[in-house]
Each structure stands twice: as C-alpha cells, then as structure tokens.
Amino acid sequence: MSADPKVELLRLRPHHMFCSRFLPLDDLGRGTAFGAAMQKVRKLAEDDAETRVVVTEGPDQLCVHCTEYRNGRCESQLGDEEKVRKWDARILEGLGVSYGDEMKVVDLMRLIREKAPLHFCLTRCPWKAFCAAVGPEASTSRGLE
C-alpha cells in the first residue's frame, strides 16, 4: 500500500478498472449516483499523476453507488455477484494482475492498452459492443487516464 497519505487510492474491482476505459460517459443504466461517482474517479485519475489503483475483490467504491447494488452485492440482471466475480477473475488473468495489487493509474492504463481486447471481452461480455466500437486505442476522455 502507498506509504504517502496524500496519494489518493482508488479501490476498484477488475471490471471497473478495465471496462471504464471503454464505456461511454453517459448513463449506463446504473443511476445518477453511480454516474457521478464514476466521473469523480475518472477526474481524480486524470488530474493526479500519483493516483494509485488497488485491485479490489468484490464490491468496491463504485458499486455502493449503483442502483443494482443491494445487500452488499451486485444484483444486476446482466450478471449477479457470482457472475461478476467470474468476469473479474477473467480480467485479472488477462491482465496478469492479482487482488491486492497496487499500481499508478498511468501504469494500469499502459497495461490495459497492451492487453486489450481480452478474449473474454470479445466473446462473453454483455458490453462487448462498446469495446469493439472504440478498440484498445480508446480516447482518454473515455477512460481512467
């Protein structure tokens, strides 16, 4: 963990750190509070080169703002907590990172550019149309960079 208390830590589960780079900034059907939380995370990541991401297992600081977060877990019709954890595991494997890993946002974005798209993203993800539309060279305005 970061020893400097001034360095902001983003605690994000794998699909939030990976997929946010490809998803549009408009409403994803997760509610206005989720959209505002995502915008805050993106702005912090864009504005502070020292911002670090901690790969978090299970619900993270964005989940708690989602309309489909209930009883401490994801209850989305596209994939409940068990399915989301499987997606997260596939993303971890594809990126070659582990839960608890901490890295600077710039290093995470470089890794995502190198690895995207993941096989899982193109074959199994319900949001795959977004990734295919923007590709791995997605504009920085679409992601955490």
Structural features, described:
The chain has 145 residues and is an alpha+beta fold. The protein has one domain. It is built from six helices and six strands, in the order βααββββαβααα. It has helices at residues 14-19, 32-47, 81-95, 105-115, 119-123, 128-134; strands at 9-12, 52-55, 69-70, 73-76, 79-80, 102-104. Strands 1-2-6 form a three-stranded mixed β-sheet. It has a three-stranded antiparallel β-sheet with strand order 3-4-5. The two termini are 21 Å apart.
Which features characterize this protein?
145 residues; alpha+beta; three-stranded antiparallel sheet
Topology, pairings included?
Layout lengths: L8 E4 L1 H6 L12 H16 L4 E4 L13 E2 L2 E4 L2 E2 H15 L6 E3 H11 L3 H5 L4 H7 L11
Parallel strand pairs: 1-2
Antiparallel strand pairs: 2-6, 3-4, 4-5
